[in-house]
């Protein structure tokens, strides 16, 4: 047994009771290998101190191991608090008992393992002090003491993927193969004749042998992390059902324990896994957490975007192709299976997902496999500071909500074609408002107390909205935002893009958390004091810019679009833009100091110069649209078209419409002829030359049976496809959870592309796809789609 300290990175955590004792189990990655620490720690919740004696008597009468102690803390309503220490298994029974006696329990829902680390400011990494006892596969540290540190782990990862039979009614699912990939080695396990194994594939006799071989590989390879694409909801779910079917323990845990899973009652189509000592990270969820957005998160589409590479099998009958390869060409199936693993690995590296998730853990304490988790991240950072300030956090629903907070400000736009429009953008507007105006849950409590006590002055309190008052000195969130901003600036200087992006996501989520009724700090006085303040700031900025002789033709959340109303060069536009933001920032500093006695952290930046700019009107009206525009910018001497919210970048419009808009608007912006080109496009459509561009791709967000009244076109197409699949003996695709459907509009209505039989309704695409796009901009050029295309239409 060796004593000392060891840097470690958190992999997984869990808690359970042994008798009247709660044990917190953490698994860590260290330079010396995996480590397990087990800590004895009761769970804690809080009640009003006035009920402490009554609560202790109730526990004693029932013989429950609960200890109630008064603590130097109070709730947001000012009541002194007492802490209740007890085993985790009693926690919710204790809460219910207190509720029956009219006593409110707070902070019941905080995970014991999270609380233990956050109260010690341990986020992601820790220094483990204690006695190291090395076992065969991992070490235990006894008498451990945990302190915060920063440690960049070198994680051992394996990318996995399975191939299965195609689901058919009345036929059991079959597992064909499991591929495991690391850059330096790979393995494909597949059912077949073991004597036919070769360098590409290891063949085993049957499914039980395949499942056991996979467990053997994991035990020998001993990865910290398993990655894949939809790996939890498909691969791991399929595997756990197979292990159960064959009566084989799915012992993926580093301590030889079985994989644990749960299916929430309110999310029956979601599965959550826990593997002691190992993390399963899904590529799709990691991409979303890192704020990547794609029209489709299909592996092939994302791989094409990042890598210029793709899967080895394509087409609509990929399931049939896989089954044929399994029968006729197992090495080819092995290559296909392994290629998917390789693509996932390369995407993780190219998108820097490993580092992003590690840095997110360093900043928030969220484990690597925790997807979403904005509320949990906020609480991990906020609660320890709140407790040290002497407060207990409120329960859900205790905040003020009588008035609803508005969203971001979007001003009415001025429609038209413009030359020389500048975009000025506030850098991190909502976080800057939080810092400048001291918006904070605890600061609200302290500010209201000072206001009600008659001690509020401009030096001590900043007024918010819905009668909010925020304390100038006693607050948490403004300082936390400042700290995050400084860390992000340093990360940028050091070229740490993963950390910079992680902090950006965290900072952006602070407003969203405070405005979410799923957060214990939800209070519309907080969210309104951010959004309504942003409305005022954008409106004040617009008035100030107008005083400088320019017109603000649009404003959106944190940006204003400024029409210069004169012809300028790119350099002259840049000079004007930089001067405007310099002067406006100075004005805000003076204004905030004079009116509220606060330092302004608002920072307007000059973002873009549009040489030409188009703001459409709402279809059929003269009013300008919102969040929809196009413009022409120049970067490094190269002209580039930018589309926001228009059909060219909307996935619910066909590729035909998107391509048509991009080229038509480009011609208008560059003053190139477009009438002959437009007629050619119409002719190509009507003669069937654009049929491959007529596909709509939309998502059913609910199971198909829930679309009962006024079924939209994509639901009707999905219904046709599911009916056809049932005729073929295949399982319906949309009956349980919805999904994506691709279809065309035919003379007989919408039909899925897989089974389209009717002729295309070209009139629909002319009227609903091309004409609206053209007439939106022709309104300002004096042209008309029907006039230009009319002669061509007469031919059909």
UniProtKB/TrEMBL annotation:
<dbReference type="InterPro" id="IPR012337">
    <property type="entry name" value="RNaseH-like_sf"/>
</dbReference>
<keyword id="KW-0548">Nucleotidyltransferase</keyword>
<dbReference type="InterPro" id="IPR023211">
    <property type="entry name" value="DNA_pol_palm_dom_sf"/>
</dbReference>
<dbReference type="InterPro" id="IPR043502">
    <property type="entry name" value="DNA/RNA_pol_sf"/>
</dbReference>
<comment type="similarity">
    <text>Belongs to the DNA polymerase type-B family.</text>
</comment>
<dbReference type="GO" id="GO:0003677">
    <property type="term" value="F:DNA binding"/>
</dbReference>
<dbReference type="InterPro" id="IPR006134">
    <property type="entry name" value="DNA-dir_DNA_pol_B_multi_dom"/>
</dbReference>
<dbReference type="GO" id="GO:0009432">
    <property type="term" value="P:SOS response"/>
</dbReference>
<dbReference type="InterPro" id="IPR036397">
    <property type="entry name" value="RNaseH_sf"/>
</dbReference>
<keyword id="KW-0239">DNA-directed DNA polymerase</keyword>
<dbReference type="InterPro" id="IPR042087">
    <property type="entry name" value="DNA_pol_B_thumb"/>
</dbReference>
<dbReference type="InterPro" id="IPR050240">
    <property type="entry name" value="DNA_pol_type-B"/>
</dbReference>
<dbReference type="GO" id="GO:0045004">
    <property type="term" value="P:DNA replication proofreading"/>
</dbReference>
<dbReference type="GO" id="GO:0000166">
    <property type="term" value="F:nucleotide binding"/>
</dbReference>
<protein>
    <recommendedName>
        <fullName>DNA-directed DNA polymerase</fullName>
        <ecNumber>2.7.7.7</ecNumber>
    </recommendedName>
</protein>
<feature type="domain" description="DNA-directed DNA polymerase family B multifunctional">
    <location>
        <begin position="379"/>
        <end position="741"/>
    </location>
</feature>
<dbReference type="Pfam" id="PF00136">
    <property type="entry name" value="DNA_pol_B"/>
</dbReference>
<feature type="domain" description="DNA-directed DNA polymerase family B exonuclease">
    <location>
        <begin position="151"/>
        <end position="302"/>
    </location>
</feature>
<keyword id="KW-0238">DNA-binding</keyword>
<dbReference type="InterPro" id="IPR017964">
    <property type="entry name" value="DNA-dir_DNA_pol_B_CS"/>
</dbReference>
<keyword id="KW-0808">Transferase</keyword>
<dbReference type="InterPro" id="IPR006133">
    <property type="entry name" value="DNA-dir_DNA_pol_B_exonuc"/>
</dbReference>
<dbReference type="InterPro" id="IPR006172">
    <property type="entry name" value="DNA-dir_DNA_pol_B"/>
</dbReference>
<dbReference type="Pfam" id="PF03104">
    <property type="entry name" value="DNA_pol_B_exo1"/>
</dbReference>
<dbReference type="GO" id="GO:0003887">
    <property type="term" value="F:DNA-directed DNA polymerase activity"/>
</dbReference>
<dbReference type="GO" id="GO:0008296">
    <property type="term" value="F:3'-5'-DNA exonuclease activity"/>
</dbReference>
